[in-house]
Amino acid sequence: MDILARNKRLEELDKAFLWYPFTQMKEWIEDTPVIIEEARDCFIKDIYGRWYLDGVSSLWVNVHGHNHKDINERLKAQIDRLAHSTLLGLSNVPAIELAHRLVKLLSDNLPVDAASLNKVFYSDNGSTAVEVALKMAFGYWRHRGVATRDSFICLNNAYHGDTIGAVSVGGVDIFHALYAPLLFKVHKSPSPYCYRCELGLSRDDCEMQCLKEMESILSARSQEIAAVIVEPMIQAAGGMIVFPDGFLSSVRDLCHRYDTLLIADEVAAGFGRTGRMFACQHEDVIPDIICLSKGLTGGYMPLAATVASQRIFNAFLGDFKELKTLFHGHSYTGNPLGCACALACLDVFEKEDTIASLQPKVGFLTRWLKDVANKHPHVGQARGIGLMAGVELVRDRSSRAAYDYGQKVGWQVALKARQRGVFIRPLGNVIVIMPPLAINIDNLNTMLSIIEEAIVEVTDKAVD
Fold it and tell me: Of 9, 21, 56, 458, which is the most buried if we count CB atoms within 10 A?
């Protein structure tokens, strides 16, 4: 079979059998799919040999670039030893080494003591890491004899994953509204979305009223709340919404004041994405539970970790007959291949001094965001932290009126960028920018220039 016939067959099979995530398949099957078969550094290549800058890190997971020699070698070495062995009743070498490494990494980067964030529970992805955290928080209070603490506080615009518990503590209606009958009750606090403040206030003089709303919930219902869950510093899938200074640390203070747990969902923001190893570092916040995934393995293997404090762990200790066990687990929990990739990923962070090398790139992106917001009439706000950014496109800048969802303005920009050799995936009309941390300045400049050209081309033609 020649290459063109092979490619045609792959396209036909794709349309016949694949159901894509977060994709309206009715429209998708009318297009020719882009099928990737190779990747190097910050580029991915399709079956026709076209290369694209990977502007979303293959959905926010790739850290050190594709096909990194050190991670490849570690994975190959591990697969010759052990591909998988259950963690239910057995252990394995990479799982042990990674747990120790993660606890040390947290203690090196956050002001934690020996009893803080020192128990690692493995799962498979960000959603499951959050599910584990919710069950830990709920079980913690129950095992302490507090049966009333059976609810959670989350933020509007929050996204914590797609499993039912994670959706319950989510706040993105477009993703979650359909499933409302399946979800457990939570208390939702206003998002610190200053550009579109749901309280109708201005950041200049609001005194973070959104925090006061959260405090009102805690004050009235503290004996009902098991935990507050937040994505530290930035609501990623909610639209790249960056927290105002002091918001995260104030949430931590409220949790202390009302004696409730704080769950930090760093699935998207962890491992250098915000310019620090962990987003919580920006305000020296120590959560009671932290959820990690995505960049943990550098984009190689599915793996997640929910790291809890000693006091939470202790609540689950008891005699066998007491049934205090954390009844949760996954077939691939602590998978040796995933753990080996994670260990290699952390080695590369040290070897290549990744966090320090980010700073010039962060500065470059920050300046571009400011420039693009000032120059273009249909850019409502361009915001970001570290190498996580979003450009919110609007129909009218003065009124902040949004484009109609059906116009697919964000998707049109993504298509124009792809035609120029950059792959991005928007969140509605927010253009998401999240390249691998390893991207160099030249490639970053190329990517941003192409995105800007695409924004101008699409918004100049967009009509109501």
Answer: 458
